[in-house]
Design goal:
The longest helix has 19 residues. Helix 4 packs antiparallel against helix 9, helix 7 crosses helix 9 and helix 7 packs across helix 10. The protein is mainly alpha-helical. It has a two-stranded antiparallel sheet with strand order 1-2. Strands 3-4 form a two-stranded antiparallel ribbon. The protein has one domain.
């Protein structure tokens, strides 16, 4: 089974006590269009086929991005499109709209996976905060601290941003960025059926960005590792 098949497949692993341990341990962490008609044209009915359709649509975006000049692409890759909190809220909203729940562990894994797909399809960083390599895979520290109180329980609120005066705002992915919205939606379609433990297993696979970073003792997961990993998944579609 190759990397792409693992992303399309449904995992059998179940959450266990180790997942709860992850949330109890202490740690001090230092206008592109994706054609919706494509899925309809395939007529996929089951979860596996929907995942493959989403992957193919991400590949369409990646092909479109190849028409952008190298200078423009270099400039774009230095920019960030959103914040971890806004992306988390996107997935929390998607879950609420479908009557689903997200635990902190699953939410953070979805955000990290989305970072990779956005990096390789839109060729921009999803957010500026660096992803760290922790025991249970890649982690966005600010989201861990935002939601760690929930441990294994479903999150029942959105992430918040605060200004210097302590006033809170509800961060959202910019509505005008249709390309980002659509990529995030495809990521949700691909991974929403997996449990938190299954997502942990996915990010722990040999050759994953997390495994490469931890093998040399790196605290941060380099964007080049992340980009190479998701590019390899796209290449398997061709």
């Amino acid at each position: 089974m190759n990397d792409l098949e693992r992303h399309i497949g449904v995992f059998s692993a179940q959450e266990n006590d180790l997942v709860s341990d992850y949330w109890t341990r202490t740690k001090d962490p230092r206008e592109l269009v994706i054609f919706d008609s494509l899925s309809d044209a395939f007529g996929y009915q089951n979860r596996q086929s929907n995942t493959q359709a989403a992957l193919l649509q991400l590949a369409l975006i990646n092909e479109t991005m190849k028409s952008v000049s190298p200078v423009q692409r270099s400039k774009r890759i230095q920019e960030s499109l959103s914040t971890p909190q806004a992306v988390a809220n996107f997935f929390l909203q998607m879950a609420a709209d479908e009557g689903k729940n997200l635990t902190p562990l699953k939410l953070i894994k979805l955000v990290c996976i989305a970072y990779g797909w956005v990096l390789v399809t839109l060729e921009q960083r999803l957010f500026r905060e660096r992803i760290e390599a922790w025991s249970f895979g890649p982690v966005v520290p600010s989201l861990y601290h935002e939601f760690k109180i929930y441990r294994k329980q479903p999150i029942d609120r959105f992430a918040l941003d605060y200004d210097f005066d302590g006033n809170s705002t509800l961060p959202r992915v910019p509505a005008e960025n249709s390309a980002l919205h659509q990529v995030l939606t495809k990521v949700w379609d691909m991974y929403k059926h997996l449990t938190a433990a299954q997502l942990v297993s996915l990010t722990h696979e040999v050759g994953s960005p997390w495994s490469q970073a931890t093998s040399v003792g790196d605290r941060y997961i380099d964007d080049l590792l992340i980009r190479d990993h998701y590019e390899s998944l796209l290449e398997q579609l061709s």
